[in-house]
């Protein structure tokens, strides 16, 4: 075996060893994830059983049956539970950007916008092409907008900015985390996408980072 063939053989051996090490690491990681999930499920089951045992003991101590278990709840807890059932659930994941959610957001934003039928009819009568077609020569030309309308738009944008500042909490910056955003709004959007899809793409990301995948056979 010549020196070139020997060098090639050594490189092939290193490649096989690294591929085997990657596959072993991935199998070990999958086992750790499975074991951690089982431990978490066991802790939740234990907590639920303890809570159920305390509830049964309280019912027995107060000589109540299961139908009157609501008597064990405090007024504050019952009110909180009622409000939780009445509250409309917030959209999660991809549902935050579907047509229905966007339309409801538009309705909330335009709830305080005043609309004048007389002004609308006047604009329709005076504009040469109020309903423009795709081949209109005025396509892209903005109509004249009054100063009061511009002021109303600015006021609405300022109100949205103020409301967003009241309800948003600035997250602590993590220097060790990968930067996958260009500004705060993009970072917030990425967090929404991560909550919706990270559970389904975690294995794909890990395989891409390692440069290998678990063989089917």
Automatic annotation (TrEMBL):
Family stated for the protein in its record: Belongs to the SYF2 family.
Coiled coil: none
Assembly with partners or alone: May be part of a spliceosome complex.
Name of the protein in question: Pre-mRNA-splicing factor SYF2
Chief localisation class: nucleus
GO cellular component: catalytic step 2 spliceosome; post-mRNA release spliceosomal complex; Prp19 complex
Protein purpose: Involved in pre-mRNA splicing.
Keyword annotations of the record: mRNA processing, mRNA splicing, Nucleus, Spliceosome
């Amino acid at each position: 075996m010549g020196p070139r063939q020997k060098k090639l053989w050594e490189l092939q051996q290193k490649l096989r060893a690294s591929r085997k090490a990657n596959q072993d690491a991935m199998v070990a990681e999958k086992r750790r994830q499975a074991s951690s999930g089982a431990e978490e499920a066991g802790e939740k089951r234990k907590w639920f059983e303890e809570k159920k045992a305390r509830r049964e003991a309280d019912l027995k101590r107060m000589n109540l049956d299961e139908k009157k278990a609501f008597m064990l709840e405090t007024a504050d807890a019952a009110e909180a539970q009622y409000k939780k059932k009445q509250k409309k659930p917030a959209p999660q994941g991809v549902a935050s950007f579907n047509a229905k959610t966007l339309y409801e957001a538009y309705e909330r934003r335009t709830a305080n916008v005043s609309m004048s039928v007389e002004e609308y009819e006047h604009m329709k009568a005076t504009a040469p092409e109020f309903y423009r077609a795709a081949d209109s020569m005025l396509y892209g030309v903005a109509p004249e907008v009054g100063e009061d309308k511009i002021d109303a738009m600015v006021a609405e944008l300022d109100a949205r900015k103020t409301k967003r500042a009241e309800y948003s909490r600035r997250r602590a910056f993590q220097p060790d985390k990968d930067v996958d955003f260009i500004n705060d709004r993009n970072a917030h959007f990425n967090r929404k996408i991560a909550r919706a899809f990270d559970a389904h793409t975690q294995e794909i990301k890990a395989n891409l980072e390692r440069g290998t995948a678990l063989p089917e056979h």
